[in-house]
Amino acid sequence: MGGNSGQAGGHIYKSLADDGPFDSVEPPKRPTSRLIMHSMAMFGREFCYAVEAAYVTPVLLSVGLPNSLYSIVWFLSPILGFLLQPVVGSASDHCRSRWGRRRPYILTLGVMMLVGMTLYLNGDTVVAALIANPRRKLVWAVSVTMIGVVLFDFAADFIDGPIKAYLFDVCSHQDKEKGLHYHALFTGFGGALGYLSGAIDWAHLELGRLLGTEFQVMFFFSALVLTLCFIVHLCSISEAPLTDVAKGIPPQQTPQDPPLSSDGMYEYGSIEKVKNGYVNPELAMQGAKNKNHAEQTCREMTLKSLLRALVSMPSHYRYLCISHLIGWTAFLSNMLFFTDFMGQIVYGGDPYSAHNSTEFLIYERGVEVGCWGLCINSVFSSLYSYFQKFLVSYIGLKGLYFTGYLLFGLGTGFIGLFPNVYSTLALCSLFGVMSSTLYTVPFNLITEYHREEEKERQQAPGGDPDNSVRGKGMDCATLTCMVQLAQILVGGGLGFLVNTAGSVVIVVITASAVALIGCCFVALFVRYVN
C-alpha cells in the first residue's frame, strides 16, 4: 500500500506533528543547540531567583514591612501555586492555541515574573516619586512591594511545570534525558551568576551611580537576562498545535483505503489514530468523540474534579510525588536558613545586637560567606548535572536518586554537628548534588512512566487514550507543586522548631534527618522502569 508499510504484526504508527505527514509518533532527534536554547529559560529563571534571594529581605526591610506581614508574603505564593498548578497543567494539556499548548502559558508566566520584579525592585522608588504624604507613601510602598514579591514567586514557581511539559512534548526519549541534564546544568549556571551579581557592591560603581541604587542595577540585569533567555527558549523548538483529529477524513473516503490528510492531527496520547501512513477511520471517529469529551472536561473542570483525578492516578506517580516532597522539604529547610546558620552558629554572630556592634558585624560577615556557599552549591549543581549522564549508565536512576539524598543527608548532618567555616563551605558542594538530583531524576522517571504507558496503549489499540483529565502537563504540574507544598511545610514548621530549640542548628539537623528518611523512601517505594 505505502512505502512505510511494515511486516505483519510490526505496525508503525504515524502522527502529524510539526515536521510533515510521515513523521513517527517519536519526535525527531533535536540538535544539541536546540536543547541548549530550550534550557535558557531555566538559566534566566534561576538568575532572577538568586537575585531575589539576595535582595528581597533588604527590599522588604527598606520599605518598612511590618513583622506581622512577613508570613503572608512567604505563604501566599506557595499556597496559590499548590492549589492552581494542577488546574493550569491540565488546562495546558487541552490548549488549542495555534502557537502550541505550552508556550502561551510560558510566555504569560514569564511576563508575570518580569512585572513582579519591576514592582518589588522599583516599587519604593516609583511610589516615592508619585506620593508625597509619608503615611500614604508607606502604605503604597509596602503594598506594591508585597504584590511584586508574591507575583514573582508565584510565576517563577509555576513556570517549571509548563517548561518540562514543553520539553516532553517535542523531544524523543533520549532527547528528554539530555534536555533535563541541560536544564539542571543551566539552572546551576544561572544561580551562580545571580549570586555573584548580588555579591557585587554596585552602589560604589559607576553603573550604580548612573541608575540610582543597587536595586535598579539588579533590575536592569535581571530584566535583560530574563527577556533574552525567554525569547531564545520560546524560539527553540516549534510546537504542534492540538487540533481536531477528525479533520483529516473527507466524507467520501472509504475505510478500505483512506489516504493520510495533510491537516495536523497530533494530540496527547494519540498513538493509534494513524497507521502505516493511513488514517484509521474508526479510531479517528473515536478521536472526534474523545475530543468532544475533552472539551466538555475543560468546561466542567473544577478543583474537585482535578483532585479526584490526582487521587486516582497510578500509585507509582503518587510515590514519586511523595519522594519529591520529602527531597524538597529537606533541601529548602537547609537552604532558606543557611546564611543565618553561617552567621549565628559558624561565625558566632548575633543578628539582634546593635547594628554598630562587633557581634552584628560578625553576623553580617557570616551571611556574606554563606552567600558564597550558595554560589558553590550552584556551581557544583551544574558540574554534577553534566556528569549525571555518564553515571546513569553505571548506577541507573535509582542509584542517582538514592545517592543524591544520601550525600545531602550526611553532609548537612556533619555541618550541624561540627560547624566549621572551611568544612561547611566544602560540603556546600553536596547541596549542589541534591539540587541537580531534584531537577533531573524525578522528571526522568516521569518520562519513563509516560513511555511505558504509550507502549501499553500501542498493545491495546481499542483503548481510549483520553479517558482522563490527566496528561503530561498535569503530571509535571503535580510533581512541581510538591515544591510549593514543601515551602508551606517548611515555612509553617521550622519557625516553631527554632523557637522551641532556641537555635538554628535544629534546622540543619532536621534537613539531614528528612533527607535520610528520603533515602529509604526512594529505595523502597519509588518505581523504576527497567
From TrEMBL:
GO annotation, biological process: developmental pigmentation; lysosomal lumen pH elevation; melanin biosynthetic process from tyrosine
Primary location recorded for the protein, binned into one broad class: membrane
Gene name as annotated: SLC45A2
Name the UniProt record assigns to this protein: Solute carrier family 45 member 2
Keywords: Membrane, Transmembrane, Transmembrane helix, Transport
Protein source organism: Chlorocebus sabaeus (Green monkey)
MF-aspect GO terms: D-glucose:proton symporter activity; sucrose:proton symporter activity
Topology versus the membrane: Multi-pass membrane protein
Superkingdom to which the source organism belongs: Eukaryota
Subcellular localization(s) per the UniProt record: Membrane
Transmembrane domains' residue ranges: 71-92, 104-132, 138-159, 180-197, 217-237, 325-347, 367-387, 399-418, 424-447, 476-498, 504-526
UniProt cross-references to Pfam families, sorted A to Z: MFS_1 (PF07690)
Signal peptide residues on this chain, from the entry's feature table: none
GO CC annotations, alphabetized: melanosome membrane
Family per record: Belongs to the glycoside-pentoside-hexuronide (GPH) cation symporter transporter (TC 2.A.2) family.
